Amino acid sequence: MRRVAALLAAALLGAALAGCGGGGAEPGAPKGATLVLDFQPNAVHSGIYAAQANGYFKDAGIDLKIQEPSSTADSAKLLETGRADFAVMDINDFGIARERGLDLVAIAAIVQRPLASVIARDPDQIRTPADLAGKTIGVTGVPSDDAVLDTVLRSGGVDPSDVHPVTIGFNAVASLAAGKVDAATAFWNAEGVELLYRGIPIREFRVDRFGAPRYPELIVATTPNDCAEASRFVAGLRRGYSVIGQHHQQALNDLLTQVDGLDSRSQNEQYQALLGANAFSARFGRDPTVRVSGQTTSAWVHWAGEHRVISASAEAKVTAGFAGCD
To answer: Which domains does the chain have, with CATH numbers?
Structure first.
């Protein structure tokens, strides 16, 4: 009888400890959290992996799990359902999610300028956006890419009705390499780099040089429910992106070391293109930053509304999301 009583007491003590947050976790241990990426890991995520490799998230009190998405639509869904605490999102996807009523807030920006562009295959024939008139241009079918094409064309005085758009999905490299289209909407840091590596001469019309404002392409979003941990996450992230400024090759190596199967040559060329364009830096300055700028996001909201990425009636709702957890 005494043995049964002792076992029962031990069980009750264990339950009490678990109820008080014991459960095997030491007091002050980093809190678990999940970050879902916008795409498969690549050079744009170097600062994240630098922070992970150097223990900066744990130093800030976050035991972070980095999760690859199964599709670009994962981020908003996982945040909405509570299956992720933080998510890297294209700014256009963030704006659309806010317009649809999802209560998301932007807490950081990991790429501080647009990566979108129109890439032309024959740089001798196509020198300026005006030369795109009458050409066949591949588009993905994504509204934000239509806005990019419209912006670049109008910067050269070309009416969008004066080109021949063809939906090619995300096959810009293959379509341009095969000569199926004269130009295509694509990312200059990815498809542009790959085309040059293949020896295909191109001309890039980066959207923020041809009509669009400079805005952060990739932001980190969360929900108000996770705002309590947001400052810790951002503290670790900020230290990770500082590695890019101080020891930039180390940040890329941290990415390559942690992610199996990445092509080091391709990632290095993408990384150098990003560094050369100061893509991790704010508008004025070269030091990498993860700060969300109200000036640049407001410019994006106006541009996105003008080009129907979001509706004009939703601009105030979308703008509110860039206030972060304040």
So the answer is: 31-113+216-321 (3.40.190.10), 116-209 (3.40.190.10)
Task: For residues 293 and 108, give the distance between their C-alpha atoms in angstroms, rounded to a whole number.
Answer: 9
Count CA within 13 A, CB hemisphere, residue 167: 4
The total number of residues shown for the chain amounts to: 326
Instruction: Give residue-wise pLDDT tens across range 48-104.
Output: 999 999 999 999 999 999 999 887 667 888 999 999 999 999 999 999 999 999 999
pLDDT tens digits for range 100-126: 999 999 999 999 999 999 999 999 999
